[in-house]
């Protein structure tokens, strides 16, 4: 037996010892330790998935409500127990004499779903003055409402909010990555 816990000498000396089976304890009784098998704990499984970088250019006077998928990643949770997923989105937003407000939202579409469903809150990028500038735009969101053995496509969608855009806006190097972990201590689907 190779798995040993802290063991207690099998005598009345009431002292603890750390020893291997078939070797005498360090306590005064000099008897053998009882062997106890340690419970095998399943290690928390973790995996990282990175989507392919994408880019979208919003032309001059793009109408409010126009939506663009800017990044995607496929996640397979086979082998996970009650999975929880952390998504991280990063992009560079370049504006050329632009006024724009964009709502970013993560959506998931799993096997058998006809329409994608939103995950987490909406994130807002605004440029209220017509300038030429470049900004990094990032956010993260978690999805713990997914069953074991599920395969889903997650997408970040940018939607023009408010009025039509002024100037040109480019969303470059848009990437969505996912860190999937076992969440076995919580109740699952």
Structure characteristics:
single chain; 189 residues; mainly beta; seven-stranded antiparallel β-sheet; two-stranded antiparallel sheet; 9 strands; 55% strand
Description:
This protein is mainly β and 189 residues long. The chain contains no helices and 9 strands. Strands 3, 4, 5, 6, 7, 8 and 9 form a 7-stranded antiparallel sheet that branches. β1 and β2 form a beta hairpin. The N terminus is likely disordered.
Briefly note the structural class of the backbone: mainly beta
- Mean pLDDT level: 80
Radius of gyration: 27 Å
Name the assembly state: single chain
Tell me, what's the shape?
A: elongated
Largest sheet: 7 strands, antiparallel
The number of distinct β-strands equals 9
Share in helix: under 10%
Q: How large is the share of residues in beta strands?
A: over 45%
Poorly predicted runs: 1-41
| Amino-to-carboxy terminus distance | 37 Å
Give the helices and strands as they follow along the chain.
EEEEEEEEE
Task: Please report the number of helical segments.
Answer: 0
Short structural description:
The chain has 189 residues and is mainly beta. The chain is built from no helices and 9 strands. It is 0% helix and 55% strand.
What is the topology?
Elements: E1 7-8, E2 16-17, E3 46-50, E4 54-58, E5 67-76, E6 84-110, E7 117-143, E8 151-160, E9 166-181
Antiparallel strand pairs: 1-2, 3-9, 4-9, 5-8, 6-7, 6-8, 6-9
